[in-house]
């Protein structure tokens, strides 16, 4: 993952690159050691079935292969929105398309500058319901 070092405020493009690179790295199944430097102190990942706190819990969880809610996720085209919340905090909201056993979701990321580098502080996975198909008067699905 090649996320450029930031100045005092991470530009939205840098935060978006971190998010995209993270999903790509997870999808490739890179070793946990390559992901850990991108995690901030105070890490928390809220998943539908568990909450991970800190790098050690993340590493243990990732190595077990139970990480499908994140590794099977791909942002929808144009689905990453970054909002600067302070000079050192960014909120990235990611619309994730459902695929296979991974339901559609919204992932809320808090990215923080630590030592001048954007790092992941929080990821919250919030399932979305798939849109219901519409039916015409005869009951035909559209």
From TrEMBL:
This is SnoaL-like domain-containing protein. It comes from the Bacteria. InterPro entries: NTF2-like_dom_sf (IPR032710). The lineage of its organism: Bacteria, Bacillati, Actinomycetota, Actinomycetes, Kitasatosporales.
């Amino acid at each position: 993952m090649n996320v450029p070092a930031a100045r005092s405020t991470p530009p939205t493009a840098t935060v978006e690159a971190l998010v995209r690179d993270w999903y790509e790295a997870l999808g490739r199944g890179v070793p946990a050691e390559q992901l850990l430097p991108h995690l901030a102190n105070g890490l928390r990942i809220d998943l539908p079935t568990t909450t991970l706190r800190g790098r050690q819990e993340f590493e243990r969880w990732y190595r077990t292969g139970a990480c499908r809610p994140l590794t099977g996720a791909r942002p929808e085209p144009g689905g990453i929105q970054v909002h600067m919340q302070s000079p050192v905090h960014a909120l990235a909201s990611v619309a994730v398309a459902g695929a296979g056993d991974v339901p559609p979701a919204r992932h809320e990321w808090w990215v923080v500058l630590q030592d001048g580098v954007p790092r992941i502080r929080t990821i919250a996975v919030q399932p979305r319901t798939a849109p219901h198909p519409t039916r015409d008067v005869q009951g035909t699905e559209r």
